[in-house]
Hints:
It is a single chain. It contains 23 helices and 21 strands. It is an alpha+beta fold. Strands 4, 5, 6, 7, 8 and 9 form a six-stranded antiparallel beta sheet that branches. The chain has a six-stranded mixed beta sheet with strand order 11-12-13-16-17-20, sandwiched between helices. Strands 2, 14, 15, 18 and 19 form a five-stranded antiparallel beta sheet that branches. Strand 16 (456-460), helix 16 and strand 17 (482-485) form a beta-alpha-beta unit. Helix 2 (57-71) crosses helix 8. The protein is globular, with a radius of gyration of 27 Å.
Amino acid sequence: MRTVKFLFVILITTSVWAATQPVEQVTFKPSVEQRLRSNLATKFLANWHYKDTRLDDELSKKIFDRYLDLLDPNFSFYLASDIATFAPYRLYMDDALQHSDPSPAYEMFNVYVDRVHERVKFAQEQLKTPMDFSVDESYAWDRSEVKWAKDEAELNEFWRQRVKNDYLRLRLAGKEDEAIVETLQDRYKNLDRRISELNSDDVFQFFMNAFAQSIEPHTAYMSPRSSENFEISMRLSLEGIGALLGRENEYTSIASVVPGGPADKEGNLKAGDKVTAVGQGAEGKMQDVIGWRVDDVVDLIRGPKHTIVRLEVLHEEVGIDGPSTIIEIVRDEVKLEEQAAKSRIIEVPGEGEEMIKVGVIDLPVFYLDFNGRAQNLPDYRSSTRDVRKLINEMKAEGIRGLVVDLRNNGGGSLLEATTLTGLFIDEGPVVQVRSSSGRISTEEDTDPGMAWDGPLAVLVNRYSASASEIFAAAIQDYGRGLVIGETTFGKGTVQNLVDLDDYAPARDSGKMGQLKITMAQFFRVNGGSTQNRGVEPDIQFPSAGDPEDYGERSLDNALPWTSISSASFEPEGDLGRMVAVAEFRYQDRMADDQEFNWLLSDVQEFNLNKDKKEVSLLESMRKEEMEKDKAKREARKAAKKANGPLLEDAHSLADAGEPVEATVDDEDEAGVDEEEENTDDDLPDLLLRESARIVGDMIVLGNDEPTLARQFSTLTKVEESDSIN
């Protein structure tokens, strides 16, 4: 299972000269001030959290394991003998918190620092040793099953292979031996330097986050310095490249891309990609960042608007042994207009020669100008207002169905999730919220009437979360439309920020830090929670990997799914028969679709390799795999170019413009530039196109009740026959 570790940012100023300076050994220990912080934070985490929290031995075990996981997630530094030495602390972490004595965490960290220095020294020595890439051996990069090395010899062997793999990756990327050695020397020196730059406050934050995340993954502690940086980042959050970073073993990974941001508009950076190097400007030297702390990578990527930053990334689909890609992004500000809802119209086949217009609303985030609303400004921006306007415009264009595209929409305003749902239902409850005290409140649509009462589908994926899940769940529960795509993320909780300075003695003001605590949980109108399970689509699109391996379900200590009583609501209808027939038509259509078969092939290949925990160190084998992948990509590119828009949909409309009617055969006659014609940026992607086709089926079947009944009856008989057989 691929688990991404998300660490809260501890900003550390980098000093280029420090990489060449000798490391000064520092022994960390808690201060009186940190003991006071521990006391205050512990009281809040133990008493205010939505989850009933008891400081006992069971929680102590979790804190101990989580702390080690934050420090050494891939079992690359500590030895089994170190863990044995720490064993008495496993049942003492709760006592340490109750007595405001985080000393065990500092003692464990001091050993960690020693081990990192030892590993860096060993890795640098390996670069002086000739490497033979004709030896048939493998590097087991994932040690989650092997765990702690039993002795130094075993850890040395792992690091010998790690350095060899680092070297081979750069060699396969076309670097010369001298440049490879220089890059890796810098990489290992930087690891040593960054550990040396940590201070006592950083250790304290690691420990308190081990405590917080042992309760629940969205709960966290931020030190005073991190709190200040967090507030700065919130004010500047819409500047930069627009990407949230996380950590996956030794790699910095892309957790999500901000809709409408520079990275999103550039188009090549995706969630799950791993950043291996960062360069400044169009020609600046690429700085290797493998093994770096997330916050240091953030510092490199941030910069003034209108400047260029280059990222070397390993795309998720190629894995850590695949070829890397350089992505050039111009830093800029994410403007509200670029995150605003957008519309387009797609034409899909109906009955006979008929073409059906299906509208699409692309909503990247549930946004609301809170200040404008509070001041009752007539033109304040909100997703609900914008979507209503777009629907009316498309109605004038003659649409007969609608797709609301919430892929990669991580949420936003709860109020907007409620009012937007109100555009598609008459009146009634949208979501239930249960607080830590057990009190249940209901967010309702009180506006009578609907902006759109026709056929509707909601397109989601694994990154659709929070407010997106509230909206999709309500549409599904009311029987108002079909949910299509992947199972959503499963974040059904609410967090509040608590400033500990407000509760500290006056003399300690500004020194306590902040807590982000989960205080409530969302529930659907049918009583089930969106937490953990997410929203399961009525029609499931192919998805790489197991749904249990991503989203809330994959996070340690995530709150479980649960339910409460259903709210009082009146469903709009029962779409059971419609779902069955529409899914049958979709499957039948996709059987002969080339792009869909490519997708299925990629999903199958990913699923076959997702549990692979090692990579060959045989250069010839790695080259062969790279050439195979390259040939596959080029073959697909050639096939798409040969077929042109026919692979997408020759009748699609971009931004409510005119139909794209030119084909490859009539390019010259139509006077269309070949390079422009083969650009598919304005054409609907495969899954969006198919979502529109499903809505088209809903329109046809809704207008032809006998056909719907007949096809459903046929499907039912086939299923019964299969069941009997």
